[in-house]
Amino acid sequence: MKKNIYLCNQNKNTMTTVDISTKFLGIDIPSPIISGSCGLTSKVENLLEMEKNGAGAVILKSLFEEQITFDIQKSTGFLSNFEYSESYDYISNHVEGFEIDKYLSLISNAKKALSIPVVASINCITYSNWIAYAKKLQEAGADAIEINFMVLPFSPDTSCEDIEHIFDDTILALRRSISIPIIVKVGKYFTDMSKFMHKLSWSGIKGLTLFNKNIDFDIDTEKESLKHTSILSNNTALYDTLRWTALLSGKIRCEVSASSGILTGDDVVKTLLAGAQTTQVVSALYGNGIEYIKTMNDYLKEWMSKKEYNTLDDFRGKLRVKESVNSNFTRIQFMKHYAEIE
Ligand SMILES: Cc1cc2nc3c(=O)[nH]c(=O)nc-3n(C[C@H](O)[C@H](O)[C@H](O)COP(=O)(O)O)c2cc1C
Fold it and tell me: Which of 157, 215, 221, 277, by CA, is between 20 and 30 Å from 32?
């Protein structure tokens, strides 16, 4: 890969060489800024726009496990025991044709059009026969697969072990069926977050995406019903991303791709200082347009030039939580702040 090198003018009239190229899941990429999985990454023309504006890689919109299951059942003419009624309603009413075929075309068309890595994404909730289809994504040309695995432990009958087994079994089965790198995207609902993320990182995956965003609901007091909240992140979403990136990166066996609440070029710098290998952006692109990737890249280069950093490794992880150091990232109680508030 051609190095992403820039010569930046500094106040002191010197030239600093700034190189923002890096690796993602072992693959060379021109920038740490990656277009995260979302509706925008389901069209090749958008993907080209992302590459043109300097995205390091693109993660395609997820293929949902239920879509795969639905296609399997439709093709075998056996729909009666479809398990997920909510998904069934959505898929049968809104989705035409065979989604898997459309997704495979998206991957192969994206691969023909782009030179940056194209990552396929599967949104899953169970360990089941959808796993056999991951191989098709690899054969269509995907450079890696992101598994979006978000489980809300709302049922008193489900233990954390039950949920963790789903992860373990799925990753093992995927590793047996595909050879491209696997990155696992998780939510925040783990009682043993640190321990389990360490364990996951030793399962043969190449990366962890911290974190997926919940779909949250508010309550409309007039109608006495649930209402949707904004699907886009606000900047408070960044703080858990920073905390857990700083706590886990450099200590777990795989890389961290920061996700959620990264809305500006300065936020990108923060995630790198916390130790992220790469940074995924979604809401920032919905809010400002795809060309905002260039603005974020430019900010990163200017910041590095100002600080006289030549490469990302010169400052990546500077604010990681070191084993021996008592970091504010390990605190969540605010006794000191209470004391200061009148
Ligand atoms: C409109 C929209 C669609 C999304 N679709 C997906 C998806 O298909 N698969 C997935 O893993 N994440 C999906 N996400 C979540 C994003 O990839 C990302 O994790 C989340 O938006 C947090 O990042 P942000 O703060 O930069 O928006 C979607 C987000 C948005 C806003």
Answer: 215
Choosing from 35, 37, 122, 240 the residue with most ligand 1 atoms within 8 A of its CB, the one to mutate for a pocket test is: 37
If one looks up domain 23-297 in CATH, what number appears? 3.20.20.70
Contact indicator for 250, 317 with CB cutoff of 8 Å: yes
Ligand 1: centre distance to CA 35 (Å): 10
Per-position DSSP letters for 293-339, written without gaps between them: HHHHHHHHHHHHHHHT--BGGGTTTTTS--TTS--GGG----HHHHH
Phi-psi region of 327 (alpha: psi -120 to 50; beta: other; left: phi over 0): beta
269: CA distance to ligand 1 center in Å? 20
CA–centroid distance for 55 within its chain:
14
Q: What predicted TM-score, i.e. pTM, was given to this entire model?
A: 0.90
Where helices occur in 76-159 by DSSP H, the ranges are 85-94, 99-113, 134-139
Buried b (16+ CB within 10 A) or exposed e, 125-162: bbbbebbebbebbbebbbbbbbbbbbbeeeeeeeeeee
pLDDT at 130: 79
Asked if 235 and 186 count as a contact pair (C-beta separation under 8 A), the reply is no
**Cβ(279) – ligand 1 distance below 6 Å:** no
From CA 299, how far away is CA 269, in angstroms rounded?
A: 9
According to the model, what pLDDT value does residue 301 have?
A: 98
Query: The tokens 């500077």 sit on which residue?
Result: 318
pLDDT (average), residues 59-79: 73
CB atoms under 10 Å from CB of 92, counted, come to 12
pLDDT in tens, 241-285: 999 999 999 999 999 999 999 999 999 999 999 999 999 999 999
Burial of 338 (0-12, 13-18, 19+ CB in 10 A): exposed
